[in-house]
Structure to design on (1548 residues):
């Protein structure tokens, strides 16, 4: 930290360098990027890294998982709730405005090990007063309703009256910078001074009257003797802002400690009429206990999580830290205790994609949780189970059977994809994904089975998972259209993962995974009938599954059309794709990103063979065991040359597949691109929120790619690693069928150790060789 | 205006140069100064000259006369009500932010003749788009509830989608920049889209539930063919902000016309339950009628007002315009139809002095109205009459009899002076003026009589004025303390006009005017008994005035102690003043303002003979006929050397007295200082609001000083003019006893013409010579 750091109280808290993400300079044009990078979340709530002082060009955001509202917006969106971060500082009556003061020193540090955001700012104001502001904030992972901010304020070259404003700001809106979309989701319920000091601001979502109650109190002490120094305190009701002004004397070079305690509850947590009471009691409990105890409990939780989730890359500090950054945010974003919420495409880090849940969660993020935090993985799948009735309604609404998951899902499980958006040229365009990007329903079934395959969680499968797989299989059977001419079943008018092509027929990814979904349903029926007949009876009776219907599943499944050029061993992304105008990417920008080939009409991308992101390749990653290496290589090479990577979901999947087919050259670059997507803002939209799918993809490249971990046809955990030149060692831990394993990979050796587990002995395959571990 | 001005529609509206106040450059540090200078007011409402676009460092303010609230503030203060000025402009989705765009041209013009504020801005945004925004706003003086803004927006070098946001912002607070005082006086009642388009935002004062309803609608036309061009309209409820977003296509160099109609009513005007209905109906009436008709009616009112109020100074354009600026704002600030409000020290131009009414109104501003707009003068005095009951309560509360007017008055007539403030050194100090600056009660009596003396409005005197004079005389009689030792009545522990000295005894100004007040009461009793015995009976019975009490008045009056050094012919400002440490001012800054003499302790100014503003001299201005020229000269010279002019009230009074005693040297400079106090911001606090007393004082220098107009001992209107070197002619109009007179003064000649009047013949005195005019 800076020169004026209070070493005992702050520096001691900060972890080793490998756990730290730095910001060394204040630049208001980068405020929003850092707000995302420095977001703290405990799964219950996400708090963007907006400065307590307030600044220009900021886009504050505090989001509570599961709190959605529509109002004048196109669709329900995650609500930007009241912002309780505000602590404005005044030196002798003058607001220390970051955008007007001379900033002598500015540093922020995200400590990923402990989930703490530190800062240290040295400011000189217009009349030469130098003030140091240092401290940290955290959002407790132990008691998710608690948040704390501690600041040490030091008048460096003067003595005088300092004052702070403790602010809870309810004027926040969504889409702040876009007047056409800007929406206020809250109305004010109460803005009040609390009896024993502090502010309380309660709001309600406008559509559903979901209440959000936030209480906050500030305590100010002399650093040296811990005496309360506040000599004047004044509460202001400022409409939707609740503000308490606190004034105190401070003398040159003597720090004053400002502790801000914050409590958040919603009517999802407690009943409306108890909300204020609960917040107030918790607030005073927290404040009287002080900040340190909660901070200790918070860091203890992080320690337990990191103990399993951390991956170490020896020999490559950049890769090591970038990967850790992705794991940190992914791991922080889940709430294993709330099965009514999932992780959004931008996690709780921003308003991008409106807080909606896409296939990103099940296909990109879930593997990380399945292997390192199975309880959370189960909770994420429980969200889908809890939305199953809504998915049934969706199917019914669209003329199908079974359960159809929405392309974008919020709190009700209904389709929340906006109908209108803006294309690359800024034109208003109809968005079709909500209508026809149907593969998500198979993606979720795939994820259910993947979870089960890794965890052996039969309880989940019997009570929830099977029902999802059956209802989605049923959806696909009804979704398929019989083509008499070819005696085949087709899935027409869809969008596959590659969204450049809309309204396509027989998308390989969709059709293949739909077939897999129906097939998995059939396998599961046989398995349950044999092993758990009474459970099967319960489920099949609940969903009215008859033997006749099962016969129909078999018929459809066996005749689903899969477009595949057998001679070229080339999979056709969808029927007719090969007839599209063929452009091959041969130029790359300074970041090694594809440049649009000359002559491409951006308004008619659907007429070309250019694709947005992995589609065929994606499927081969998911179901690697079903394709031989030659097919993988041929298709990887064909599609790689045509993939524009206009989604952050692409690079990681190409990296995994590249490593599988021996294209090591680009794998490391793709991995780093994926790992740094937010740290380097290489998609240019980090300010909108975390690229959570890319974070999950990055983990997959490390584990599925470099460590070469996969489950083979016989269900054996297998490793065929390949390490980049400078990597000395790659080590990580996973849960495998209830056992905690440690994997240590060097250039010469792969070690798999059982750290704790239910099995006495376990067989794994390393580079094709069967090994027994204990 | 700028290059892109639409000459037909804007330039034609702009008056001749002598009516115009210019701003030629945008500088955000000067925003608040120009907000005051460019305030528009119609007496009902004041609207600071904040830019429609919004900008940094602005301090918006919209004030409605008579709407006060306390909430967490120290005292009731004028409420900063919802700001309806906002029109944010977006070029192809990008907010044209004045503080981020390159400003190629910026001009604002206040047209004082018509009460219109013009602007012309040429902006280049970050990607090179140049946009011109030109137009004007006005606040109707005809229908005070109507306000209009017209903007012509022209995409100068591009074609594309433009959009505007029509905003009514209810998040406004008082003391925005001072967190210790910052107070929100409004709570939200309704924020709604109006059925036929437009926004409605209703607020209520927090203490009294006084409702303020503002409705606004925007119409957008193609300039060429007047077609409505809006293609998308979206209302947003943003908490306390009501916003309508409107989108349209605009093509290169083709202006689009944006008309914003605004209606304001309060529950002072109509009943709460009718408020929205009245606002809505008026809004649609206004919008369907269009802007031009109201603008014509508005300018017609200004024409009538200027016809009497304008003063022309030939040969000195700067003085001519600066004086006109003061008259413009003074004249605009009164509402002759509302006898429950008066003009505040900062008029309706800012939050300074909290919208409170001081002696500034009766002593500094009222003469202008008495002579040019007697109906308004009567209304201003009716405000004091309507507060008479409160003044009686004040007296009772303080242990006195009769009526005691508060030093600072708001809507209730109770004392509203804050108890605490900040001194020159920034220390918190007790403010005593509300407790002991008692002279205001005599000032008001003085003003009542002055109004009567000029207008002969016997109806006012009989029904209202006499009651004020009697009750204030009664107050003074009870306020005086009998000193047995000297057999005299004293008024101890007061503050005179010079506020450097607190808790003084027998302040000359106070004692002299108190004596005058009692004496005027006695004279009036005799007059009424003789001429209007039945009226006298009514009044004396109403206020229980007995002959015995009248005898006591006589006793007290005759023995009030007046400190006066007969040998030196020097009046002692208060008892013991001459024993204070004597500092004489001998240094002046670059603006010819006094510099603190060396050695003065700013925390102990009361121990010195330095005075803040005219005190003895002030009294001699008010009651000039009671002092001979020698006394005037001696005292003027003595106090001039000791007056620091820390109030803007001083220079004008010294100028008048200087001209009376032949000190012509500094008179012009003092006049210009007074005239330019806001235009040049020479007190450094123009941002807080208009120096309204100084504006009135400036008028007095022109008329009482240079024109040398006064009422002599025999009640004759008299003139002893003196014109500065370069002034060729000074001409103005006044009402004198119901007649409209024109006065034309040149170096050689004084002409007084009767323009219209009730008297066939009138006698006036010019340079001592009695002249008869017809």
């Amino acid at each position: 930290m800076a020169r004026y750091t209070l070493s005992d109280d702050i520096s001691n808290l900060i972890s080793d360098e490998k756990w730290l993400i730095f910001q060394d300079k204040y630049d208001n044009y980068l405020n929003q990027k850092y707000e995302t990078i420095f977001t703290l979340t405990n799964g219950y709530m996400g708090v963007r890294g907006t400065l307590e002082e307030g600044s220009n060009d900021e886009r504050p955001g505090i989001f509570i998982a599961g709190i959605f509202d529509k109002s004048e917006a196109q669709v329900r969106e995650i609500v930007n709730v009241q912002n309780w971060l505000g602590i404005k500082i005044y030196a002798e009556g003058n607001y220390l405005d970051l955008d007007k003061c001379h900033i002598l020193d500015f540093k922020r540090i995200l400590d990923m090990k402990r989930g703490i955001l530190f800062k240290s700012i040295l400011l000189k104001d217009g009349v030469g007063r130098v003030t140091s502001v240092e401290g940290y904030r955290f959002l407790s992972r132990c008691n998710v309703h608690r948040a704390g901010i501690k600041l040490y304020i030091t008048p460096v070259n003067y003595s005088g009256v300092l004052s702070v404003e403790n602010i809870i700001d309810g004027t926040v809106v969504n889409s702040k910078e876009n007047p056409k979309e800007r929406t206020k989701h809250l109305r004010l319920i109460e803005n009040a001074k609390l009896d024993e000091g502090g502010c309380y601001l309660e709001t309600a979502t406008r559509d559903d009257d979901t209440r959000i109650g936030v209480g906050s109190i500030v305590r100010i002490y002399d650093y040296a003797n811990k005496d309360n120094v506040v000599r004047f305190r004044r509460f202001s009701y400022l409409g939707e802002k609740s503000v308490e002004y606190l004034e105190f004397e401070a003398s040159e070079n003597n720090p004053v400690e400002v502790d801000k305690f914050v409590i958040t509850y919603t009517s999802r947590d407690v009943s409306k009429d108890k909300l204020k009471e609960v917040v107030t009691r918790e607030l005073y409990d927290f404040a009287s206990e002080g900040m340190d105890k909660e901070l200790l409990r918070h860091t203890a939780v992080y320690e337990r999580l990191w103990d399993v989730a951390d991956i170490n890359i020896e020999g490559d500090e950049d890769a090591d830290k970038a990967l850790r950054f992705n794991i940190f945010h992914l791991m922080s974003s889940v709430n294993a205790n709330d099965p009514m919420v999932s992780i959004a495409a931008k996690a709780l880090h921003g308003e991008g994609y409106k807080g909606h849940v896409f296939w990103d969660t099940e296909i990109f993020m879930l593997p990380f949780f399945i292997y390192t935090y199975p309880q959370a993985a189960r909770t994420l799948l429980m969200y889908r189970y809890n939305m199953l009735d809504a998915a049934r309604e969706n199917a019914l609404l669209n003329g199908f059977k079974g359960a159809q998951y929405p392309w974008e899902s919020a709190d009700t499980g209904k389709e929340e994809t906006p109908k209108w958006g803006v294309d690359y040229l800024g034109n208003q365009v109809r968005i079709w994904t909500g209508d026809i990007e149907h593969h998500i329903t198979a993606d979720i079934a795939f994820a259910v089975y993947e979870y089960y395959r890794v965890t052996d969680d039969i309880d989940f499968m019997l009570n929830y998972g099977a029902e999802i797989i059956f209802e989605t299989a049923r959806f696909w059977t009804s979704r398929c259209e019989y083509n008499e001419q070819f005696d085949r079943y087709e899935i027409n008018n869809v969008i596959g993962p590659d969204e450049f092509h809309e309204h396509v027929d027989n998308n390989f990814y969709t059709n293949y995974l739909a077939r897999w979904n129906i097939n998995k349903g059939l396998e599961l029926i046989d398995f349950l009938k044999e092993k758990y007949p009474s459970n099967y009876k319960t489920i099949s009776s609940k969903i009215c599954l008859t033997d006749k219907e099962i016969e129909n599943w078999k018929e459809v499944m066996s005749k689903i059309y899969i477009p595949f050029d057998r001679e070229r061993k080339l999979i056709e992304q969808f029927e007719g794709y090969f007839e599209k105008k063929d452009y091959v990417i041969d130029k790359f920008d300074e970041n090694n990103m594809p440049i649009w080939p000359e002559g491409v009409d951006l308004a008619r991308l659907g007429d070309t063979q250019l694709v947005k992101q992995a589609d065929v390749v994606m499927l081969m990653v998911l179901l690697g065991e079903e394709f031989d290496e030659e097919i993988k290589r041929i298709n990887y090479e064909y599609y790689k040359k045509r993939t524009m990577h206009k989604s952050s979901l692409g690079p990681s999947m190409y990296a995994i597949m590249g490593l599988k087919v021996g294209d090591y050259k680009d794998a490391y670059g793709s991995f780093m691109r994926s790992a740094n997507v937010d740290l380097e803002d290489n998609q240019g939209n980090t300010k909108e929120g975390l690229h959570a799918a890319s974070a999950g993809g990055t983990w997959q490249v490390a584990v599925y790619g470099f460590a070469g971990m996969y489950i083979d046809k016989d269900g054996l955990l297998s490793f065929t690693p390949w390490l980049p030149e400078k990597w000395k060692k790659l080590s990580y831990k996973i849960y495998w069928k209830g056992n905690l394993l440690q994997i240590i990979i060097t250039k010469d050796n792969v070690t798999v150790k059982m750290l704790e587990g239910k099995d006495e002995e376990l067989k794994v395959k390393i580079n094709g060789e069967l090994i027994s571990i204990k």
About this structure: Chain A has a mean pLDDT of 95. The radius of gyration of chain A is 27 Å. Chain A touches chain B through 36 residues (CB under 8 Å). Residues 38 and 691 of chain A are 13 Å apart (CA to CA).
